[in-house]
C-alpha cells in the first residue's frame, strides 16, 4: 500500500543517521504561528497615504484651476510689457513707477476703446428700435401684397403682447439678470487679479529671477535666464508686431469705410484692427461682421463691398505683410501657428488661443539652441527643382515616349526594318 501523507513527510524529514534536521523558517518573514511580516502594515499605511495625497492634490488642482490660469495670463502680460518697463528703468526711472505708467497707459487705451465701441452699439440699437415700426410696416405690406392677406401692425403687436411666449421670455430674462450680474462681478474680479499679478511680475521681475536662480546651480541659472530672455523677446515681439499690423489694418479699413460714408468709421476701423489681430483664427470674421452690419443699414451693396475688401486685405496680410513683420519676432510656420492655436484652445479655451503662438515661439527658440545643425548640400532636389541642362530635355522625352509607343504598336515578330510585304 502507498504510504500516507504523514508517513511520507516523516520519511522525508528523517535523515539516514536517524536524526531530524532543523526546521527552516517560513518564507516571507512570518513566524511559526503565521503572523504577518512587520513591513506589511507600514507598506499599507504608506500606500493609503500616497493615495490620499494624490486625491487631495487632484482636488486642490481642480479648485485652483481658475487662479492658475489667471497667473499664466498675468505672466505673459508681464512678459509683453517687460521691454517697455526695462527701457524706462534703464533711463533712471524706478521700476515700480515705470510699470505703473505702462499699466495706466494700457488701461486708458482699453477703457477708451470699450467706451467708444459701447457708444456705437448703443446708438445703433436705439436707431434699430426707433426704426422698427417702419421695418415692420414694410414687411407687413410686402406680405399683404404677395400673399393677399390683410395683416395689420396693431393686431400683430397685440398678439405678441398677449402671447405666452413673450411672458415666459420676460420671466426668464428677469431671472437671468442675477446670473449676468454675477458673471460681470466675477469677470471684474478676474481682471483685477490678472492686473495685480501682472504688475507684481513686471515690477519685481529681477527679484523673481534672483529668487529662482538662488535654488539652482550656476549652469541651470544660465539656462533659466536665457529662457526668460527668449520668452520676453518673443512675447514682446509678438505683441508689438500685432499692434503694428492692427494699426495698418485699422487705417486701411478706415479709408474704405470713410469712402463709403459708413457712420462711425474711426471706431469701426479700431475694432477691425484690434479684433482681427489679437483674436486668433476667428478674429477676422468677428472683426468684419460689425462693419458689414452697419454698412448694410446704409446700403446692402456697401456690405458686399466691405466683405470683398476684408477678404482681399486678409490675403494680403497673410502672404505679404505678416511674414515681413513677424520674421524676426515670431518666426514660426503658419501651419505650426494654426496647430498651436487649436491645441491651446483645446487645453485652456480662449486663453490658450491667445498665448499659444508666443508660447510656441518661445519653446521653439529655446529648443533651437540644443539642436545641432549642419550645412545643407547643394543638391538641386533640396530646392525642389532640377538644374538647367540636367537630365533629358523636353523634346528628347517626347521623342522617347513616341518611339516607345510605336514599338508597342508593332506586331510580334516584325522588326524595325521589316515591312508588311516581306515574307
Summarize the structure.
With 423 residues, the chain is an all-alpha fold. 75% of the residues lie in helices and 0% in strands. The longest helix has 42 residues.
What does this molecule look like?
The protein is an all-alpha fold and 423 residues long. 75% of the residues lie in helices and 0% in strands. It has 15 helices and no strands. It starts with a helix and ends in a 14-residue tail after the last helix. The N terminus and C terminus are likely disordered.
Key words describing this protein structure:
423 residues; mainly alpha; 15 helices; 75% helix; 0% strand; extended; disordered N terminus
Show unreliable segments: 1-16, 28-32, 419-423
Strand content: under 5%
Helix-strand string: HHHHHHHHHHHHHHH
Judged by helices, strands and strand pairing, the structural class is mainly alpha
* Helix share, percent: over 70%
Q: Gyration radius, to the nearest Å?
A: 38 Å
Largest sheet: none
Shape: extended
- The mean pLDDT is 76
Q: In angstroms, what separates the terminal alpha carbons?
A: 103 Å
User: How many beta-strand elements?
Assistant: 0
Count of individual helical segments: 15
Amino acid at each position: 500500500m502507498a504510504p500516507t501523507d504523514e508517513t511520507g513527510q516523516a520519511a522525508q524529514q528523517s535523515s539516514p543517521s536517524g536524526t531530524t534536521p532543523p526546521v527552516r523558517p517560513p518564507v516571507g518573514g512570518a513566524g511559526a504561528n503565521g503572523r504577518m511580516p512587520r513591513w506589511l502594515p507600514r507598506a499599507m499605511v504608506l500606500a493609503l497615504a500616497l493615495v490620499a495625497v494624490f486625491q487631495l492634490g487632484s482636488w486642490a488642482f481642480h479648485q485652483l484651476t481658475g487662479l492658475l490660469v489667471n497667473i499664466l495670463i498675468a505672466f505673459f502680460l508681464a512678459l509683453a510689457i517687460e521691454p517697455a518697463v526695462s527701457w524706462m528703468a534703464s533711463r533712471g526711472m524706478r521700476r515700480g513707477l515705470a510699470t505703473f505708467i505702462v499699466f495706466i497707459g494700457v488701461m486708458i487705451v482699453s477703457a477708451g476703446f470699450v467706451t467708444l465701441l459701447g457708444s456705437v452699439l448703443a446708438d445703433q440699437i436705439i436707431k434699430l428700435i426707433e426704426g422698427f415700426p417702419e421695418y415692420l410696416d414694410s414687411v407687413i405690406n410686402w406680405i399683404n401684397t404677395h400673399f393677399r392677406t390683410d395683416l395689420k401692425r396693431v393686431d400683430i403687436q397685440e398678439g405678441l403682447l398677449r402671447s405666452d411666449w413673450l411672458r415666459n421670455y420676460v420671466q426668464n430674462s428677469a431671472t437671468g439678470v442675477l446670473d449676468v450680474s454675477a458673471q460681470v462681478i466675477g469677470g471684474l474680479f478676474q481682471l483685477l487679479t490678472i492686473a495685480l499679478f501682472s504688475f507684481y511680475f513686471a515690477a519685481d521681475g529681477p527679484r523673481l529671477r534672483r529668487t529662482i536662480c538662488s535654488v539652482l546651480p550656476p549652469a541651470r541659472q544660465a539656462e533659466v535666464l536665457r529662457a526668460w530672455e527668449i520668452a520676453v523677446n518673443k512675447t514682446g515681439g509678438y505683441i508689438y508686431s500685432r499692434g503694428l499690423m492692427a494699426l495698418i489694418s485699422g487705417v486701411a479699413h478706415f479709408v474704405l469705410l470713410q469712402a463709403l460714408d459708413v457712420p462711425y468709421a474711426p471706431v469701426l476701423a479700431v475694432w477691425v484692427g484690434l479684433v482681427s489681430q489679437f483674436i486668433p483664427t476667428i478674429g477676422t470674421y468677428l472683426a468684419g461682421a460689425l462693419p458689414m452690419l452697419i454698412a448694410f443699414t446704409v446700403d446692402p451693396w456697401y456690405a458686399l463691398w466691405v466683405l470683398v475688401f476684408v477678404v482681399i486685405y486678409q490675403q494680403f496680410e497673410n502672404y505679404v505683410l505678416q511674414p515681413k513683420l513677424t520674421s524676426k519676432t515670431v518666426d514660426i510656420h503658419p501651419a505650426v501657428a494654426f496647430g498651436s492655436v487649436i491645441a491651446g484652445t483645446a487645453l485652456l479655451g480662449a486663453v490658450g488661443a491667445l498665448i499659444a503662438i508666443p508660447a510656441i515661439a518661445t519653446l521653439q527658440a529655446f529648443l533651437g539652441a540644443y539642436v545641432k545643425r549642419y550645412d545643407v548640400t547643394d543638391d538641386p532636389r533640396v530646392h525642389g527643382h532640377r538644374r538647367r541642362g540636367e537630365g533629358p530635355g523636353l523634346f528628347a522625352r517626347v521623342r522617347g515616349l513616341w518611339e516607345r509607343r510605336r514599338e508597342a504598336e508593332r506586331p510580334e515578330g516584325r522588326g524595325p526594318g521589316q515591312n508588311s510585304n516581306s515574307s
